[in-house]
Amino acid sequence: MICEEVKTQDFNFKDPNMNLKQIWDLKLESSQEAVEDIFERSKQEFKMGTKLDEYDKIYKDIVFEYEATKSYKDLQLLIFNDDNFNALEEQMLTAYNFNNNRFKDFLEDKINNWVNLLNLMNDIIVLLKYAQTKWSFLEKMFVQSAEVKKELGEKAVEFVKFDDKMKSILTLGKNTPNVRSFCQSKNLKDDLKSLCHAFDDAEDYLNRNYLKLKKNKFPRF
């Protein structure tokens, strides 16, 4: 965008022979507000573009840390450390502010892409942490303990499909260590939401049957 006085001139900003007289002849002092707007737009676009390019470099290198599970030697929990998570929250706020910047036009698609991606990563990291915490406890009862499995009956059989899905997500994280790539996996967010709901139901079932299980001297939970 450029002010009308400049647009009407036969003036090529990319001309290597451009000189100060040509700029003077534009009489930009008579269009101070428009010129200041152009300057501010350029400054804001540069600031936003630089920051978004920085995000791209950051998330090419960020990978999960891993934590051993107690029940399975070939499975590891996926850890997104607190420093990275705090940085992610700050990046989300910055991208949101960019999306409300009146000079966003030129970068609007790029800004929207990062707003969506950062929000997706945040949602998945939160869901993943919750699902792993629940699963680490529940699989000991529904899968590892033969006595509890027998007592739980069909509920334990039903839990197997959720256990398998959780294991497949952990395997995906092992094979796709880059956090950005992992979070962009198809249907991952929906799968994690379903698992969190299923694990909540399973935990609620255990709590409702606590006295019965305790009476039979099954493992504490």
Task: Present the secondary structure layout.
Layout lengths: L3 H4 L12 H6 L6 H30 L3 E4 L7 E4 L2 H18 L8 H37 L1 H7 L1 H22 L3 H5 L4 H21 L1 H6 L6
Antiparallel strand pairs: 1-2
What does this protein look like?
By secondary structure, this protein is mainly alpha-helical. Helix content is 71%, strand content 4%. It contains ten helices and two strands, in the order H-H-H-E-E-H-H-H-H-H-H-H. Strands 1-2 form a two-stranded antiparallel sheet. Helix 6 (146-152) crosses helix 7 and helix 7 (154-175) runs antiparallel to helix 9 (188-208). It starts with a helix and ends in a 6-residue tail after the last helix.
- Envelope shape: elongated
**Share in β-strands:** under 5%
**The first-level CATH class name:** Mainly Alpha
How much helix is in the residues?
over 70%
Q: What structural class results from the helix and strand content? A: mainly alpha
Residue-averaged pLDDT: 84
Q: Separation of termini?
A: 65 Å
Please work out how many helical segments DSSP would assign: 10
List unreliable stretches of 5+ residues. Answer: none
Q: Mind describing the biggest β-sheet?
A: 2 strands, antiparallel
SSE order? HHHEEHHHHHHH
Spatial ordering of strands, largest sheet: 1-2
Q: Would you tell me which CATH topology applies?
A: Butyryl-CoA Dehydrogenase, subunit A, domain 3
CATH architecture: Up-down Bundle
Q: Give the total of domains.
A: 1
